[in-house]
Design a protein that fits this description.
TIM Barrel; two-stranded antiparallel sheet; 363 residues; 14 helices; eight-stranded parallel beta sheet
Length: 363
């Protein structure tokens, strides 16, 4: 494997991943944005006589596959012993409910093959060659792209996909986090050119994902014009990975570097509106960033998203399969109630007529 500029020891990476996990589980990393409060359902007092909780069509087609609900488990963790059990529980849930699931960054396993066992999900007994195998999304970051040539980047993507038998890959853009992270990258070489090359050569869906800063109209347009159809806008309002880095730091000077940037970025709602201004035919918006309920899922679909992704919400319930199932059932029921309240028989009937917005958006 090619060397990576600034490569840290395995012990350092494991320590960082443990810190990330503990901070997300035990500290306040959720920005608790009120953005979804500015979107209201256009509710009906007289229900549609054809609608009931049992006959709603919640299926959607995405990534050339049919899913039972417009809910995605967003990638959060992976690569250490503590996260293997979490991902196994999440994957079991994703399989039971036929929804897509992302994993956390696979960088550690690409650099240190001895950690690949923590991305081994074979104990669940899924047949990876079967069409019923859960839809898994691999995950690598822009920092790996910046220090490798385009062919090596493509090879790394293939390794990440093969490692978990994924059907798609997410490349996350975490510029602020990298710049604030003591171990992070400070230079970024031909990121866009490498993304385009991977998208053209890989043969599987490539998702470009933000991780808490949201996306401007300009960023989204550049990606769509470059032929990237899957955009995960990763809006401000949920887990802030830049804030996580601040909480990691024992150095007051380093932790204070986050403060001037705390209010920057685009909320999830703003980012979706930025997407709708430049969207193309056969392009798709994945909405992540602060979604916590089935009503939030409904609202992001109504303003232009194709699917809603939740990370921290699932992670907080991952201590038991019962808790995860209860959370999922709650999300589904909330989503279905919103459908009935707005007279929405299917996913395809959820559009801007089903909600109203009280916020003015800028680019």
């Amino acid at each position: 494997m090619s060397s990576v500029k600034g490569k840290k020891s395995l012990a350092q990476i494991i320590k960082r991943k443990k810190e990330h996990l503990n901070i997300c589980l035990c500290q306040d990393v959720d920005e608790k944005s009120l953005q979804f409060n500015n979107i209201k359902l256009n509710t009906l007092s007289i229900p549609n006589s054809h609608l009931s909780l049992d006959n709603l069509d919640t299926t959607l087609n995405l990534f050339n596959r049919s899913f039972s609900y417009p809910i995605m488990i967003a990638g959060m963790v992976g690569g250490i012993l503590e996260t293997q059990k979490i991902n196994l529980s999440l994957l079991k849930l994703a399989s039971s409910y036929n929804i897509p699931m992302g994993v956390g960054s696979q960088k550690i396993a690409l650099l240190y093959p001895e950690t690949r066992k923590y991305f081994d999900f074979s104990s669940l007994g899924f047949n990876c060659s079967s069409s019923s195998y859960p839809f898994l999304i691999s995950n690598i970051g822009m920092d790996l792209l910046s220090v490798n040539d385009k062919d090596r980047c493509l090879s790394l993507c293939k390794e990440a996909i093969d490692m978990i038998h994924a059907q798609a890959i997410s490349i996350h853009l975490n510029l602020l986090q990298e710049l604030l992270q003591p171990e992070g990258s400070s230079s970024f070489d031909q990121i866009l050119e490498k993304i385009i090359y991977i998208n053209n050569k890989l043969g599987l869906p490539v998702i470009i994902k933000e991780v808490g800063m949201g996306m401007s109209k300009k960023t989204i347009k550049i990606l769509l014009d470059s032929g990237i159809p899957y955009i995960d806008i990763g809006g401000k309002g949920g887990t802030s990975w830049a804030k996580v880095e601040m909480l990691r730091s024992s150095n007051k000077k380093e932790s204070n570097q986050y403060t001037p940037f705390a209010g920057e970025g685009y909320t999830t709602v703003e980012s979706i509106h930025n997407y709708t201004k430049v969207q193309k035919q056969d392009s798709y918006c994945i909405a992540t960033g602060g979604l916590r309920s089935g009503v939030d899922i409904f609202k992001v679909l109504s303003i232009g998203a194709s699917i809603g992704g939740i990370g921290l919400g699932f992670l907080k319930q991952s201590h038991s399969e019962e808790s995860l199932t209860q959370y999922m059932e709650t999300l589904i029921k909330e989503f279905k109630i919103a459908m009935i309240l707005t007279g929405s028989l299917s996913i395809n009937s959820i559009d801007s007529s089903k909600t109203r917005t009280y916020t003015t958006f800028t680019d």
